Amino acid sequence: MTENSSSSALPIDVVLDRPSPGMVVASVSGELDMLTAPRLRAVVTAELAGCAVLVIDLSGVSFLGSAGLAVLVEAAHEAERQQVELRVVATGRTVRRPLEITGLNEVLTTFPSRDDAVGAPG
Q1: Which of 15, 52, 71, 110 is the S-S candidate for 90 at Cβ 3.0 to 4.6 Å?
Q2: Which domain holds residue 69?
Q3: What are phi and psi of 83, to 5 degrees?
């Protein structure tokens, strides 16, 4: 099942997919900055409440700013609190570089592709 959770006024698109029971994939595309981060935050907050594994696929992100990084940190904390496994798809320099510079690549469980994140043993 695929759900489009985007707002046409924002340069971000979040599409939800449920590839297996208990798993939600939030595929993000566009710019993840201070204007769009609240949209991703809302989706992550809503989906964490009802899943065992949340995959945030950032392969379509063309810009990852500090507000987007903050959403990932918040998601990691909330996932840990709710005992949800958080997986982040980080492809391309646009996403990997900010994660490396901030050290978040050491904190988040990252994967090089959506298929790897979805197929990883839980």
Answers
A1: 110
A2: 2-114
A3: 60, 45
